## 1
Amino acid sequence: MEINVSQQLKASVGSIRNYEVNETIDTGSGSSMVQGKVRLMRTDRGILVKGILHTEVEVTCSRCLTLFSCPLGLNIEEEYFPATDVVSGTSLPLPEEPGCFTIDERHTLDLTEAIRQSALLAIPMKPLCREDCAGLCPGCGHNLNQGPCNCLPQERESHRSELSKLALASNLPVNEGKGTE
Ligand SMILES: [Zn+2]
Ligand SMILES: [Zn+2]
């Protein structure tokens, strides 16, 4: 999403403009509709963008492995630095912070990358399709959200403890105390 800020760059520090965001953006896990409002404020160095946006991304549930649509609230707060002086047209020195956001020589401020980064941060590490997702049966892999499977409860339990033993074993250091001869 691109905003031309040439007028605002000429305005005094503290001047504010509001924009509606209503864009399809590739958030890395497919295209998502992003909506909300941003407020752009002229600072002494550039333009500060603040806003809360909403989107939904397709993610895989960490328990039952089904794809579901996960709503995200994106908190945007980024300062953009002009690459070119809006009045004189001369190049401006940019801050040395890596990954800082810039306003290009056409005075275009592009929100896409800031939105994409904030969406990546907002996606939960272990997404759950719902709070009480029942997950998969460790015995047969059946999705228990769709009802019980035919495994006996003790069968399910023994599979579960085997699985946890395996998980424990894989956490142990592999070469310790052997294989030196
Ligand atoms: Zn799930
Ligand atoms: Zn089962």
## 2
Amino acid sequence: MIKISRTGIEQYLKCKRCFILQYKHRVKVPMLPFTLNIAVDNLAKNEFDYFREKQEPHPLFLENNIDAVPFMHPSMDKWRDFRKGGISYANESDGYHFWGAIDDVWMKPNGELIISDVKATSRKEFNWDKTWSENDYPKAYKRQLEMYQWLFRKNGFTVSNKAYLVYYNGLKNEPMFNQALKFELHLVELQCNDEWVEDALIKAKDLMASDEFPGGSKNCDTCQYLKKRWNVNKVIE
Ligand code: SF4
């Protein structure tokens, strides 16, 4: 049984070489933790939990005509914690165990679940359509939601194709700081489709099980940097 995380599949889709380096050989590009983003995630979690406890809609739902409340479930804390394994699905016959840690789930009156994820940024003007058309990372956010939808469906839940990004935009041009970072809140609705997930999972698992060492991506800044560094080394030594 090969264990693969949601971030592993995202890495597989972005660059198969880095996927194998990281998830098979445990060689990882060092990265600092995004501590401010983690703080925003945690504050949002606390706020949504307040409404979960009361089984009332978050004001954001009312503003955006979303008929739902934060989902109350005994496994909610496990699903949200990667240290506890998040939400997972094991397929014995195909030989994989897939898992991911979610931010939040909301429930409609008919029992259908809505997957959401918290994001933080700091832009002068928040324009999702422009961000979507000019960058690759919003598509990764959509894939992230689709993988969570797939996991919840595999765990027996009915899940809406609609998913949401709860987006906090940090205001950086305030006249006074006063040790308080202010945010504007945006809700981004995404129409998702998880049909690709199983195929990607099986291909990633097969690659892990093989002896193949795939090539790197030509567009990757990190690899270009490492190649240039290597070339300089060869000249100097
Ligand atoms: S191209 Fe190189 S550094 Fe970039 S993701 Fe792939 S293996 Fe990693």
